[in-house]
Amino acid sequence: MKRIFLLVLLVFALQSTTAQTSENPSFEDVISLKSVSNAVISPDGRHVVFTKQSVDWNENKYDRELWVSKNRGKPFQLTNNLKSTSGSAKWSPDSKWIAFLSKRGEKTQIHALRIAGGESFQVTKTKNDISGFEWSPDGQKISFLQSEDKSEEEKERKETYGGFAVEDAEFNLNQLWVTDFSPARLTESLLPDELKDTIYTQKRAARLLIDSVAFSINSFKWSPNGKQIAFEHQPDPLRNTFFKADISIYDIPSNTHKVLVHNPSYDGLINWSPDGKSILYRTSLNDSTSNYYSNGKLFRIDLDGSGEKQLAQDFDENLSGVQWTPNGIFAIAWQKTKRPLIKINPKNGNYTVLPINLERIWSYSFSKDGKQLAYTGVNDTNLSEVYHSDTKLSKPTVLTASSKQIKNWSVAQSEVISWKSQDGQVIEGVLHKPMNYDPNKKYPLLVVIHGGPTGISTPSPTPAYVYPMIQWLNKGALILRPNYRGSAGYGEKFRSLNVQNLGVGDAWDVLSGVAYLEEQGIIDSNKMGAMGWSQGGYISAFLTTNTDTFKAISVGAGISNWMTYYVNTDIHPFTRQYLKATPWSDKEIYEKTSPMTNINKAGTPTLIQHGEFDKRVPIANAYELFQGLQDNDVATKLIVYKGFGHGITKPKEQLAATWHNWQWFAKYIWGEIIELPKE
Questions:
Q1: Confidence band, pLDDT 50/70/90 cuts, at residue 105
Q2: Global pTM?
Q3: Ordered alpha helix ranges (H), 521-547
Q4: Strand order of the sheet with strand 47-56?
Q5: What own/partner pairs with CB < 8 Å and gap ≥ 24 does 495-498 have?
Q6: In sequence order, what E strands does 409-455 have?
């Protein structure tokens, strides 16, 4: 085996004749890519505010700030929070103000700035973080959500009894508050801090709207006339109580509320109809045993409880980002690897897929009259951009230029392929090739498996996360990203195919995809690796203990034992729904689908990556797999990322995790020993 002590520049040396005119980006380059999201158009249809993300390596954070395009002009930056981020922008009804959430002190609060120019000012000053807000239709009030304050009660208990907590029994309810909004408050920013505090107390104090109730509010929407508020609520804010969410209407003049939608399972508020006579909502009706993988149902209902009707009933996928405008109801939805805009008739429920010159729409918003549209989207060969268009979608204005960042890069060439799995099911996947791909050559293959399981892999010039995919391509490899059974975009039946068959059927889909590429004669079967995060990590762990197809595997935040997972995770219903049992009611299905069951058959060198405080897939799963591999003399390494939960959310640790994967597969696929750079 060669020993190669590579400096960063050598690792990213140019690999081919094509690459001589294209740059092979570094790991830092890919992590540092700026991205845009959440485009929101002003009610008058003239301006667009959006979020732009960049990397602050000194502060080790992803910085998200607000940018705006006025009258389809060149965007400019609105906010600059040096220690935190700014987001959740919402226009005032008169299109003159933008309110947003930002943490500029101890707590996340609402701030506002005038689109005409000037500094932002703080609208609220509350004891707890604000999690969501809405302007009143007249623009004179802003309502918001924050958790109830139990700080004094908790302090007194801790002083007497120390620290303890009762599982699933201690929580702070999310409450609905309102505060007045007055532009005259701008002058208060010139006052001394002690006077500001007095003004906040006397003039700007927020008021609790709904008091002394035994439920937690998830979301809310003002009625168009400003006299009512629809809100979604559940018994407590615990994650698994969402099954019991209902929708109620709060009447402001009478200070009363009543339940409008109360099904046995989840009911989620979407919005009001433009005329204020109906509510749009999504529901699982009485399904609390399969709604992790079944289609949600879209309904409308009149305020008196009549006229309830299911919409887009024949649409076989989950609808998201649903909005009700004067021109109809709109949504986005996965359709295999595409994500188009869907229009739904609110009266008869029929739907149409709108023609738009993008492969995938991520977010969108309409002007108040429904005639102007802002959206973010992407094609297979570029990065996401922000667009401003009329509703004909014929001549959109591209407001951003994110794709210029990769203009001179050597990037992934993507295509969607399909093959038949072991049971005859047709599976799709994304095959990434290097820019100088030679069909007569056999390449090493790296399989990257998405999470979910209801995630999806799509074509992209810069696939990444903690896997250095661009660099592997430029090193001379192919990458397969399978959309195994259970993935979004292929309908409810497809998402149900790994129920009681997790791991087993997923492995069929991965291995049959590898076999398909072998039949094409384009891969070197002696140089293959597999990896994934979350559900992708679980499938990778299953492959580790059930096949010797791969020379190396990386398991990121993966499940190794379903029983260990079930008793530790924060989403117990997920396991019960997919395995249709608890460990005590059907031990066999837990064993059949657990990687640890066949740990004695494991032989593939396996890297394990996990967040220290992961609640979704608790780290016990990593330790169990690590110890089992060690006991069977299988080459393994466990790397714990300190302070993180289920994802690696800071750039420096993401860089470290990327290097760890680069080192692992370099050793076992290419026979190279690479040291971690010290600078």
A1: confident
A2: 0.92
A3: 535-546
A4: 35-41, 47-56, 61-70, 76-77
A5: 495/293, 495/294, 495/453, 495/454, 496/290, 496/293, 496/294, 497/425, 498/453, 498/578
A6: 413-420, 426-433, 443-449
